[in-house]
Amino acid sequence: MLRLTISAAGLAMAAVVAFAPAATADDGWGGADCGQVPVAGCDVSAGGGGGHNGGAVHLPGTGGDDDSAVGPDYSGCRWDKVDDYSEPGQPTTGGGWYLLTCLPDFQDGPFWVADAAPAPVSPRVLAETARNRLSLPRPSILASPAQNQLVNLPTWLWVDRGAWVPVSVTASVPGVSVTATARPTAVTWSMGDGTTVTCNGPGDPLLGGDPRAASPTCGHTFRRASERYPVTATIHWSVSWAGAGTGGTFPELTTSTTTAFRVVEIQALGAR
């Protein structure tokens, strides 16, 4: 029985055992498509002429002749692990012995199939995984006055402080851990009247003082009345990652909320 040691380097794709179409009914080997494999694959072609003992098993990329075989059409193949098989001088760990069986009556092996080491996961890939798991809060829109806004009276704008905190997620595999962190950097306000306001912070509430004073951090003054101004607050998040002795950045993320402001006019205020 022919035996072959299969290295992990040759196990890159799903196994296909390919035999040439039938030429004569008496040459021994046949065609088969093996879809069940115990490992991460290999291409195997069998050489023949004169039956099994005259053939060879060849794994592309591991050397050997690329012989073509002829024979009856086999309907399928499978790999069967042999748990109680061993050979002097052959490894006993890091893989296993397998028989190649093709219907109706072809079998070869056992073959030693080395365990393929898992491909290393790069820190960047882990960072992308962590970034995709970030759950960033949407802003709650707050304003003063709390109800109707007034023409020519400054509106103070801010988002709730709970949405203005860094958010981090860590992704890990054995031996490697990477953390992605999103930090709020600015809020863009689309005021619904054709103007946009960018604030480099969450803004501040009006706590006493002159209601005619403009917000020092984030605000807007409406010049025309409207029953419904659609107002959108968008938080911009910078995203960085660090781990495994390296790090980097991702394009910014955003979260948004939209509401409606009613703006009324009080003539006594006049234009400022």
UniProtKB/TrEMBL annotation:
Secretion signal, residue range per the UniProt entry: 1-25
Domain of life: Bacteria
Protein's recorded name: PKD domain-containing protein
Keyword annotations of the record: Signal
